Amino acid sequence: PAAAELVDETAINVAWNADYSNPEIYPEQSYAEDVTIEKVTYYAAEGKTIKWASKRMQFGGKPSFDTETYPGVTLPTGGARYATFKITKPGTIKVFFYSGGSSNTGRNASVVLETNVGGTKSAKTIHSADAPCSTSAADGLVELTVTKADLAGITEAAVVYLFSNNNTIQITQLGFEPAS
After folding, report:
1. Helix, strand or coil for residue 140?
2. What is each CA distance from 121 to 113, 116, 143, in whole angstroms?
3. How far apart are CA 41 and CA 18, in angstroms?
4. Mind listing the pLDDT tens digit for each residue in 9-63?
5. Cα–Cα distance measured from residue 107 to residue 42, given in angstroms and rounded to the nearest whole number
6. Residue 94 CA, distance from chain mean position
7. How many other C-beta atoms are found inside a 10 Å radius of the C-beta of residue 76?
8. pTM for the full predicted model
9. What pLDDT, in 10s, does the model give residues 128-151?
């Protein structure tokens, strides 16, 4: 018999795209505390704000990190300047990172997938590259595939982390398309 589908109402499991240009959903303002919009949690803190401006989300700096969280992977801690969302199905993550500056040197954009299989957590980096300076979709849009094998045996929703490990970056587009 087929395995039962994992259900998590807080996960994004239908085709979804953030419309950062819609001020009804993403008002142009700064946040000094965590905010969840359309099942994506954006982490912020006093003095470490995130904001929406000019139709994009701005982290305003890099997050804090502990020592290596998993072998070869370090995740943000301390609750500021990164974003997460959950998935329970394989599919394609679409994200447009933008450096927000005149140079992309030292403006790394990272995406990490964290899974839990029967109480054993692990993570893998699925994207790590300098964020482009251009706002051209041809330059900055990355499509990242999460496979059935990536999610095999998960006992809770997988968590997708988006962040820069060394400087501020911006996100102009974010979405998820489940595999058919």
Report:
1. helix
2. 11, 4, 24
3. 12
4. 999 999 999 988 899 999 999 999 999 999 999 999 888 899 998 889 999 888 9
5. 19
6. 10
7. 24
8. 0.93
9. 998 888 766 566 789 999 999 999
Residues in the chain: 180
Two structure tokens written together for 87: 């998935």
| Contact in structure between 11 and 157 (CB atoms under 8 Å) | yes
pLDDT of residue 126 exceeding 50, the answer is: yes
The residues near 51 (Cβ < 8 Å, ≥ 6 apart) are 28, 29, 30, 31, 57, 58, 60
Least Cα distance to 54 among 18, 33, 29, 37 occurs for: 29
Question: Quick one: tokens of 57?
Answer: 């989300």
CA 149 to chain centre: 20
Residue 20: which region, alpha, beta or left (left: phi > 0; alpha: psi -120 to 50)?
alpha
pLDDT band at 81 (very low <50, low <70, confident <90, very high): very high
